[in-house]
């Protein structure tokens, strides 16, 4: 990132939404929630989307953030996407530094000058078969999966009890 002149920043998903929403409104964008997009058309000079209501909206930019079954991805690739699931469920969350300080193995990250923060983001890539999810579950940023349904048997025996998720290795 340093070579490109950029910065690396970790944020909660909802904070990214809030930031993009605010920046878009300030730039003059109109936001329409709850609209179902049925098609995306590249444009000359502007792209457009067609809504389930039949309304067509033109835009300067269309951001396709509609997941693995993305219609925008199909349009960009100009073919059906042949991506295969990776076999992992990604769990995300955050843990407060105060909660981490309760655990000797985690305290060093919560108190070091390099990492000292009020809250830490957490992402776990867990094998689908042990994740407590099923093949019929839909992709979602907001689906809550109970810790009780996740199989932790594959964790390192030198594991630590991590707040909110149970025991797992941080090595």
From TrEMBL:
Taxonomic lineage is: Eukaryota, Fungi, Dikarya, Basidiomycota, Agaricomycotina
This protein is called: FAD-binding domain-containing protein
Q: Which InterPro entries match?
A: FAD-bd (IPR002938), FAD-dep_Monooxygenase_BioMet (IPR050493), FAD/NAD-bd_sf (IPR036188)
* Keywords assigned by UniProt, alphabetized: FAD, Flavoprotein, Monooxygenase, Oxidoreductase
The entry's family comment says: Belongs to the paxM FAD-dependent monooxygenase family.
- According to the entry, every stretch annotated as the FAD-binding domain falls at 8-77
Matching Pfam families:
FAD_binding_3
Q: Which GO terms describe its molecular function?
A: FAD binding; monooxygenase activity
């Amino acid at each position: 990132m340093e070579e490109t002149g950029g910065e690396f920043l970790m944020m909660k998903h909802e904070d990214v939404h809030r930031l993009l929403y605010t920046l878009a409104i300030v730039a003059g964008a109109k936001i329409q929630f709850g609209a179902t997009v049925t098609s995306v058309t590249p444009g000359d000079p502007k792209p457009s989307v067609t809504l389930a209501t039949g309304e067509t909206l033109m835009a300067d930019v269309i951001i396709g953030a509609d997941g693995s079954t993305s219609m925008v991805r199909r349009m960009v690739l100009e073919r059906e996407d042949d991506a295969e699931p990776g076999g992992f469920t990604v769990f995300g969350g955050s843990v407060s530094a105060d909660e981490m300080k309760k655990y000797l193995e985690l305290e060093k990250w919560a108190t070091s000058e390099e990492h000292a923060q009020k809250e830490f983001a957490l992402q776990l890539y867990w094998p689908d078969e042990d994740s407590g999810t099923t093949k019929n579950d839909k992709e979602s940023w907001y689906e809550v999966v109970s810790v009780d349904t996740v199989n932790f048997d594959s964790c390192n025996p030198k594991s630590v009890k991590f707040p909110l998720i149970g025991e797992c290795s941080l090595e």
